[in-house]
């Protein structure tokens, strides 16, 4: 099998984003665009990936390293051809196949990349093209009589006849031999108004070398580029639609899928049911048979089989719900394990805690886990019944089968099967309320006479 390398062009500042953050670092479905392109390349069987950055882009290089990619620096912004050629410093004498893709294409698919590489293996060079609904100012892909690439013509240079062509350049290229690609890139000329070296001119150089370019055609969404905040929003919408479609196809139930928002890494098993307006942040797994009711927000959490969450629940990072757990409306769970069959049905905060199997957490209960400096742990035993409006002041351990009286503030460990009562003694003063109201009425009357 031929070795494969990928070059990702990520040196552009993205000035139209109006952001101090490099363009490829902007997220789609909670993953920077660069991460999506790297993932697609990995899916296409590309072993070595080089991300080309500008000198000042340390954060982009750090992200590339996180995903196991190499980096190369484009010293000066001299066009896409110059950027691709800059990857030679990292790839060196590599002679396997190479695919070049822009870093601002978060919806790029592995199958599109594989097809491009396969075409290049047959012809020597391949260009990816698409037919947009609105060709606008895209470069036109002009084919010869054999269906191979004749040339790519920039819109501003195209004749009326060429502008009528609806096949446009996507910005993805594959070459069967990386050494030949760099040889062609080295021959690019910068005799244009911008004084830059353009990647779309590589096929012309290859043609002069006797190598014709194949053209692979894909859909518009797959090669969607992002250059502005508006286009980022469009890419997010397209990605959400793709993610929802996959889950539905995998057997996940969604009453109103268009209202559910997913992360790139959301895992939901078949027969889980997701209600309207549920938001998934990164790192969420939902097991089969679980039900996430409307307006709930989950991030960094695991929901077990048959569990019930929401409506209006919040699961924060480190929340683990075991099988058949119930987390109800306006309940927040953070860095806590809720064991099998336990319930917290309303108005509760559980943080830095364990809730034992079958325990019941009453409305208004909170684990007081933070003292202003450190977080402390609360351990609630199996079968415990925590009365409404109980404050559990951590660190504290509540034994198995304990009952806490409603309104208690528990500051000390409670042994198994005990009743814990920690609240002020109730006093009753007969007739006080009536006297209070009479006094207030008299005061009001006296003010009115002045």
Question: Could you outline the blueprint of secondary structure elements for this entry?
Answer:
Elements: E1 4-9, E2 27-28, E3 31-32, H1 33-43, E4 48-53, H2 58-66, E5 70-73, H3 80-85, H4 88-91, E6 97-102, H5 110-123, E7 125-130, E8 140-143, E9 149-153, H6 160-163, E10 168-175, H7 178-186, H8 202-208, E11 213-218, H9 229-249, E12 253-254, E13 267-268, E14 273-274, E15 279-280, E16 285-286, E17 291-292, E18 297-298, E19 302-303, E20 308-309, E21 314-315, E22 320-321, E23 326-338, E24 343-355, E25 360-361, E26 366-368, E27 378-380, E28 385-386, E29 391-393, E30 396-398, E31 403-404, E32 409-410, E33 419-420, H10 432-449
Parallel strand pairs: 1-4, 1-6, 4-5, 7-11, 12-14, 13-16, 14-17, 15-18, 16-19, 17-20, 18-21, 19-22, 20-23, 21-23, 22-23, 23-24, 24-25, 24-27, 25-28, 26-29, 27-30, 28-31, 29-32, 31-33
Antiparallel strand pairs: 2-3, 6-10, 7-10, 8-9
Would you kindly provide a written description of the structure presented here, covering whatever features stand out?
This protein is an alpha/beta fold. The protein has two domains: 4-218, Spore Coat Polysaccharide Biosynthesis Protein SpsA, Chain A (Alpha-Beta Complex); 250-420, Hexapeptide repeat proteins (UDP N-Acetylglucosamine Acyltransferase, domain 1, 3 Solenoid), CATH 2.160.10.10. The chain contains ten helices and 33 strands. The chain has a 19-stranded parallel β-sheet that branches. A hairpin with a 2-residue loop joins strand 2 and strand 3 (31-32). It is elongated and about 105 Å long.
